[in-house]
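lol ok so funny story. i was supposed to be doing the assay writeup but got distracted and ended up predicting the structure for this chain instead. priorities right. anyway since i did it might as well share w the group, maybe its usefull for someone
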Amino acid sequence: GCRSPVRHARGPGYRLSKIHHIGIVVSDLPEALSSLGLTSDDVRETVYDPVQKNKLHFVYISANDLWLEFVEPTSEEASTWTFARKFGAGLHHLGFWTEDMDVSEGLHADRSGTFILGRYQIDVSSFGGAIRTFFVSAKGLIVEYVTSRGSLSK
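and the output, tada:
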């Protein structure tokens, strides 16, 4: 694969970290799990997000050292309701772990076609406990950056 650093407005040398999780919106969790050869026994944790009004179901895929986050809207006010209604299930976002949220957010500052979708704090034991997240849409690609809530930006 390509080993050159990602170039961006903040200067050369920044490397995108490995994908931490893949967010998949679902309207029917058992069907979505079954379509991937998974069952409810594979779900390690379910967390309700009261801000976005979604149930978050976490499955660890050890062969890839990453999480699948099944995002299930719980009401018409849920952040993913329209997506689930339109597609039933589908890839929603890529999640990257970051040690420096300021640098991650800076990647998208003043970038054409990019807008912030939200910043959230939630407890997810599967992700180590208290986390902070930053969602951004970059020309239609939704990216989430995740860090420990205790992590201070550098």
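The two ends are 30 Å apart (CA to CA). The chain has a mean pLDDT of 87.
back to the writeup now i swear
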